[in-house]
Structure formats: structure tokens, C-alpha cells
Amino acid sequence: MPKKESDAVADTRYDVQQLESLSSKLNFSGALEWTAPNDEREQERLDLVHHIHRLAVDGALTRAPIGSNPQRVLDIGTGTGIWAIEFGEEYPSAEVVGMDFSPIQPSWVPPNVKFEVDDAESEWPYNAPFDYIHARSLCGAIGDWPKLYGQALQHLKPGGWMECQEYEMGLHSDDGTLESLATNCVEYMAKLDEASEKFGKKMNIVRTLEGKMRDAGFEDVRSDIYKVPLSPWAKEKKLKELGRYQQVASLESLEPYGLALFTRYLGWTPEQVQLLLVGVRRELKDPRIHTYCKIHFIYGRKAEK
User: Fold this and answer.
1) Which regions of the chain are under pLDDT 70?
2) pTM given for the model
């Protein structure tokens, strides 16, 4: 664990003097507890992550074979609502419902799109079934995945699809530069996962979700995995572009995601968190380090009968 450092740290999202008060404000209370902010800057980052997901799959909104005429669609943890809005525009025949416990979605939306404030881990209030259920970036936000999948299966039409689009928490490099040059990144990711497990909503579980989906009763389950560089080090044009966007998204996520978890569940001080983040930021900007993450598109179908 890094030692306490009282000097001001440059290039941070928040001043060190603000960190103690901020860390106490990041969580929602009660059943809706969550460890990241939903301010305007975070909303911009979520929209950037949406762009990264679409770019990774050449502009597609889904990987599941939902056909050209879905009628009812549910977006779990809709966030800013950007996926639901774009889906509604691309599929005007569909009624799209976006669910989130934070009402940060815009009021001007396509007529076939609506948003509802609700908690995905509570009992869902819907009577009519859905053709397709979409979820994204829920690792670290869900404590009971079997329950989530069970509810999704219950609320799907026979033959309907569910899809989860999730980052894998681990980092990778094919040339060893992660292990040799990015020790702060390795420590940050390991501690983030440790803290999230103590929080009760483990982040590094994406590799288990395919099996959990099968165990819940879904059929034809598969996981499509895409590499995303953490900076623009790749030579291939698309990967370089992905790396530019992912670098920004990663830098923006470090402090809000790490601060509450590290201080509340690992006993770190805000200054200790910032000291580690200085090294993480430096490594994310180092072109010698060829790290990448992976996005998993996991989808399965409810049986026809």
C-alpha cells in the first residue's frame, strides 16, 4: 500500500482537500447503493463508453440476432439513455423502456422511448413480456446475478434474447509491457476488484456470466470478445481510434471508481489513493506500454416453449 503523501497531486479530477467530503457523497443509500458519481462529467464518460462499444462492433447496437422487428425492448441500467434512444431511432417499431435508479436521462426522446426510475435488483413491475433485454456495465453494480438473469428470463417472450455488454476487469499485453512497465495499473485493478468484492458487488466477474446465463435457463448462449487498447499504441487504424477513446474513458474513471471503494473498503486515505493514481495515469499515457482490455458481448435466448 502506498504511503501517505500530503503534497498536492497534479492532474486529478478533484482537489485533494475535497476528497474526504467527496468520498462520503459518492454512494447512494439503502438498496440503491453504488460507488460511482452520476454528475455531468460522469455522464459524458458513459456516452463515450457507448461510442467505444459501438465502434468495437462496427456500429452495431446488439450482437444478439434479434431480427429487424423487435416490439418490446428493456434496457437495464440505461444510464444517460443513449443506447435506448439510438435503439428507438434505429427500430421505430419497438417500444423501448430504459430502467435506471438515477433519473439523469433527457426529457426529449423519440416517441417510442421512455425511461423509468427503478432498481434492477428489485422485483420488476412489468406485465407484458419483452422481445429483447439489454444490459451494459453492470459488473460492480449487481450483487445477485442469478436473480437478475432469472427475472430477465421470466420477463422475456419465448424465443426472446438477453444481452449483457461488459468490460473484463483484467488488463492484458501480448509483449509483457503490462507486467514490466505498468505495475501501478496492475495494483489498481487488483485493489479495485478486492474492494468491490468487500462491497458485495464484485467487478471482475465477466468470465462467469456466460455460465450463469446458462444456469438460469437460457439457450444458445455465447460470448463475443473484442480487444480494446487502453491508449493509441496500436498500428491498425480502428484499434488506434479505439485506444484514443478508451484512454480518455479510463483516465476519467480512475478517481470516481477508485476513491469510494479504496477509502471505504480497504482503509486507504484519499491521499494514498491519489498517490497510486499518479502512477496509473503516467502508465496510461506511456506509449511504450501496449495494454488492452476486453469487452464481452454475452447473449442467450429463452426457449421457444
Assistant:
1) 1-37
2) 0.88
